[in-house]
Each structure stands twice: as C-alpha cells, then as structure tokens.
C-alpha cells in the first residue's frame, strides 16, 4: 500500500486489512521496486517439477493443479498456460505469444 498517511494507526490498519507492505510518501521508486521483489520472493517457491504460489501448487509430472489442498481438473491447455505463467512471474505476455507457447502455432487473428 502506498499512501500519504504516516500515522502508525493508519499503517497498522492497512496491514491488518491485507496489505503486504506499507510505504509512505515521499518514497523512492527504487525502494518500491525492492519491496515488490521481496514480496514476490516470499510468494513464489519453485522446486524441481513443481511450483507453489501461496495456496496454488502445480505438479508438473502428474499435471495436477492443487488449490487450497483441493485437486482441480484443468484441460491440458489450461495446465500448460498456468505452468508457463507461474514459471515466469512478472512477465507480460501477448495473446499471440501465449497461444504460440501453449499450443505451438502462430495465431492469425
């Protein structure tokens, strides 16, 4: 949360309602980027063949998606798309690139 409010009560309230961090103005853009990277490091855990992001667990070998402990049925394309997105957090993909990466062909539309 980025705010002009510097009061400790406001900071505590912001964190209590779900903010991962609290930054008061004025702030350094480099500090904001560093804080964002720190949050992403806490939430993204990759291991051989598996990816975990908070309560989402992607099991590459078995092609299973587990959310909050429940296995979710997804199509092979959906699984490939999730696997791609989770393998490159923070990357912005065009629709055409996603289709090419997941389905293996150029999109003409």
Summarize the structure.
The protein is of the alpha+beta class and 109 residues long. The chain has helices spanning 8-16, 29-43, 76-87, 95-103, and strands at residues 2-3, 23-24, 44-47, 50-53, 56-59, 64-67, 70-72.
Describe this entry's structure for a reader:
One of its GO terms (cellular component) is cytosol. InterPro entries: CheY-like_superfamily, OmpR/PhoB-type_DNA-bd, Sig_transdc_resp-reg_C-effctor, Sig_transdc_resp-reg_receiver, WalR-like, WH-like_DNA-bd_sf. By secondary structure, the chain is an alpha+beta fold. The protein has 2 domains: 1-44, no CATH class; 48-109, Winged helix-like DNA-binding domain superfamily/Winged helix DNA-binding domain (Arc Repressor Mutant, subunit A), CATH 1.10.10.10. It has helices spanning 8-16, 29-43, 76-87, 95-103, and strands at 2-3, 23-24, 44-47, 50-53, 56-59, 64-67, 70-72. The protein is elongated and about 50 Å long.
What is the secondary structure topology, with strand pairs?
Elements: E1 2-3, H1 8-16, E2 23-24, H2 29-43, E3 44-47, E4 50-53, E5 56-59, E6 64-67, E7 70-72, H3 76-87, H4 95-103
Helix pairs in contact: 3-4
């Amino acid at each position: 949360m980025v705010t002009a409010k510097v009061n400790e009560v406001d900071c505590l309230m912001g964190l209590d309602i779900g903010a991962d961090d609290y930054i008061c103005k004025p702030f350094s853009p480099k500090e904001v980027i560093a804080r964002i990277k720190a949050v992403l490091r806490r939430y993204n855990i990759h291991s051989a063949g598996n990816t975990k992001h908070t309560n989402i667990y992607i099991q590459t070998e078995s092609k299973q998606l587990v959310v909050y402990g429940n296995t979710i049925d997804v199509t092979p394309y959906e699984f490939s798309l999730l696997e791609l997105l989770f393998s490159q957090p923070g990357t912005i993909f065009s629709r055409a690139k996603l289709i090419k990466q997941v389905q293996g062909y150029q999109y003409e539309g």
